[in-house]
Amino acid sequence: MKKVLFLLIVLVAAIQLATPGVMIAKHERTLREGEVFKFKTTVVDPYDAFRGRYVRLAVQTARVPFHGESLPHKRRGTVFAELDTDENGFAYVRRASRRAPEEGAYITVKDARLSQHTNLSIRLPIERFYLPEGEAPRAEVVYAQAASDRNREAVVVARVLNGNLVLENLLIDGVPIREWIATASTKMEN
Hints:
Layout: H1 2-33, E1 35-44, E2 47-48, E3 52-58, E4 62-67, E5 77-85, E6 91-97, E7 106-114, E8 119-122, E9 128-130, H2 136-147, E10 154-161, E11 164-172, E12 175-176, H3 177-189
Parallel strand pairs: 4-6
Antiparallel strand pairs: 1-3, 1-10, 2-3, 3-9, 4-8, 5-6, 5-7, 7-8, 10-11, 11-12
């Protein structure tokens, strides 16, 4: 009996340790092998007491044709959002369906609602860009300066692989946010 209990405890511990490892491996594989997409965004810098500093991203909600069996009208459902790129190089959702496409890039989206009988309102899973604790407050200042100028553009770069989306970088006018922070810090010191 003691051996069975011991083996059960070891099995449960192994599963608990393996779960985060699998999640991290999936994230890292997407960053390494995923297709690159750029999304236009607006930025706000809040603080999460449990997860630290991050830049909150607001990507426009996509309204796209929906193909497949219907979703309950006011309930959320999981769909597969097929991605494409416009003439300016920015990603957009071309269409959505209940089945993963056989080819092309797509994102698994859990927050999708029918907005009309055949159109689906999709909120892409692009919400937070985390930064090290010491860099986030400077990122807030840099972004606030950039956001006050309507001629500036904020873009998030993401990688997509097998329905998984991972944020890679946040760009302001084509420059990574960490470079903006370094430039702003240098100017403040001089």
